[in-house]
Amino acid sequence: MYYINKGRDKEGFIVKTVNKEIVQLIKNGKCIRWYLMEYLLKNVNTCRMIIYIGKGVFADCDFGPGSFLLEYDGELVKAAVGRQRENLDGTFSKRKGRYINDGIGKEQNAVMKMIEVNNRPHLAVFATRKILKGEEIRYDYGVTNLPWRSKTIYRVS
């Protein structure tokens, strides 16, 4: 894998703020409580995601099914006593793969696979279907009880 060997991101992706309209309202001082709740109640999917998603990775060109997209790069953390698997910590990575958000069902357009390159494990993200320019890249994190997957809408009193 060329990009993994070179330790750099593939071209064709941009990282940007996902909920830009809400962030702009807050910055402009116009996001008072009742207005925000009215917006969120009209946009239920945004309501579930707003607290949790800041940035995301978006395609800057089209990609075909099965295409290598990005690597989730990070520090390989050795397994602690009692744990069976090593982990990859992308906290300090400067690569775009760390900004790929969770997606389920129709939101999901990619999958993460562990591949070995030069006898070292790497987490690579591949397209599961055609991805169009402007689309956010999302894959299923594989954890069912994530807070942003809750369908509960919290009301402000």
From TrEMBL:
SUPFAM superfamilies: SET domain (SSF82199). Residues 42-142 form the SET domain. Pfam families: SET (PF00856). PROSITE patterns: SET. This is SET domain-containing protein. The lineage of its organism: Eukaryota, Metazoa, Spiralia, Lophotrochozoa, Mollusca.
